[in-house]
Amino acid sequence: MNKEILSTLFVIGAAICFTYLPMTCHQNLSNNNIPLSLSPFSLSPAFSSSLSNRKSNSSRSLSTRYHLSPPYLSLSVADMDGGVCPSLYPLHRCKTIHLVRHAQGIHNVDGDKNYKAYLSPEYFDAQLTPLGWQQVDNLRKHVQESGLSKRIELVISSPLLRTLQTAVGVFGGEGYTDRMDILPLMVANAGNSGRAAISSLNCPEIIAVELCREHLGVHPCDRRRSISDYQFLFPAVDFSLIESDEDVLWKENVREKKEELAARGLKFMNWLWTRKEKDIAIVTHSGFLSHTLSAFGNDCHPLVKQEICKHFANCELRSMVIVDRSMTGSDSPRTNYPGNIPSGPDLPSDVADQKIKKKDGSNTNSLV
């Protein structure tokens, strides 16, 4: 099929989209059933996993293609030919997020052998295993050696014991020594860890956020204890964003729907734009990551989609870039420079060319 026929088909398709998509979006919104594709930001891996395949695996823009008014439809010869093209965004409209799944918890060990173990009250708010703490130590070493520890400005943790232990163990300070002016991030032997206290000196702020909790309901391992208990175990962690001391979200007989979990994940991603920090580590859970990330990468190369959505191992860290395309929370650029200081004539030749054309209708194409 030649390009002329393809072009005609795409124009017809565009007309249909512009006619019916706004109506569909309006109906979905009126029913409180917001499509995941309406997310006003995009997400992509921060680094390519295969340099040798960079040309063949280059992704299209991961920005979702539907807006409420008007919908965005990108049509080009490259798209028609199945080609790919890069995306370009202002740096100050981007954030780098470093997604971390918690280290191995005691529930993971028996749950790997028998799924019903996740239903056992024995694993209420499961803590890390000794192997899990080894995983924490290894990730901490990687974060320091790679330079990430100097870049990360904020750490966000799900308010469960295993994620808090992972967050303070990986991103916290060194060993804590008693002093009046500094609180420890974690007290000694928190959650029967057998670990020494961890200092809050020389490390980014760590805050607990309910939105990035694991799949809610039924599984006791995903039920949190009271915030007052956590504040005793993790004195320097900020729990101020959590409104209820007791866990009012977890239900014994009601499991959160997958669609609800995915929507919660997108709400969390949108909330990130209320933060001024640009490099943010997020310590969370497998279910939360899987259902949240599944909403992204649908308009890119299948291998990039796979890279975004693949299952997280315990204590795995994966860096991604999110882009604000809606002006929701973008801040002023830090690195841009206005130029023309001191000021002086700086009329570009192409602008002068256009001015001359408008003035006398000439066909000047060679101004320099």
TrEMBL record:
GO cellular component annotations of the record: cytoplasm
MF terms per GO, please? phosphatase activity
Q: Which residues cross the membrane?
A: none
Q: Name one Pfam family in it.
A: His_Phos_1
Residue ranges with Basic and acidic residues bias: 352-361
Q: Which residue windows does the record flag with biased composition (Polar residues)?
A: 327-338
Question: What InterPro entries does its record include?
Answer: His_Pase_superF_clade-1, His_PPase_superfam, PGM_Phosphatase
Q: Where is this region: Disordered?
A: 327-368
User: Which family would the database say this protein is a member of?
Assistant: Belongs to the phosphoglycerate mutase family.
**Tell me, what does this protein do in biology?**
May play a role in carbohydrates metabolism.
Q: What is this protein called?
A: His_Phos_1 domain-containing protein
